């Protein structure tokens, strides 16, 4: 599990100024497999928020995506990067 801050060059709906990146960004939590293949991604959030903003909602979104794709989630173990501490 990871979150990505993507710089935005033009305006958009989920854009916010991120001090550390010194630009406007969009943040999107995602789940990938052990090989780094993207399995699910949440709806983008304003980039001026940390990775844990609304995390319960985002995890539920991603779990629902996995279920819709017939990927089993029973016993799912997520390893999050350091930004989720």
Strand content: 25-35%
Main beta sheet: 5 strands, antiparallel
* Total E-strand runs: 5
DSSP helix fraction? 10-25%
Low confidence ranges = none
Q: Compute the number of helices.
A: 1
Would you tell me the overall average pLDDT?
78
N-to-C SSE string, H for helix and E for strand: EEEEEH
Radius of gyration: 13 Å
- What number of structural domains do the residues give? 1
Structural class: alpha+beta
The span between the termini is 12 Å
Large-scale geometry: elongated
In a few lines, what is going on in this structure?
The protein has 85 residues and is α+β, with helices and mostly antiparallel strands.
Structure description:
By secondary structure, the chain is α+β, with helices and mostly antiparallel strands. It has one domain. 16% of the residues lie in helices and 29% in strands. It has one helix and five strands, in the order E-E-E-E-E-H. The chain has one helix at residues 55-68; strands spanning 2-7, 16-18, 23-32, 38-41, 45-46. Strands 1, 2, 3, 4 and 5 form a five-stranded antiparallel beta sheet that branches. The two termini are 12 Å apart.
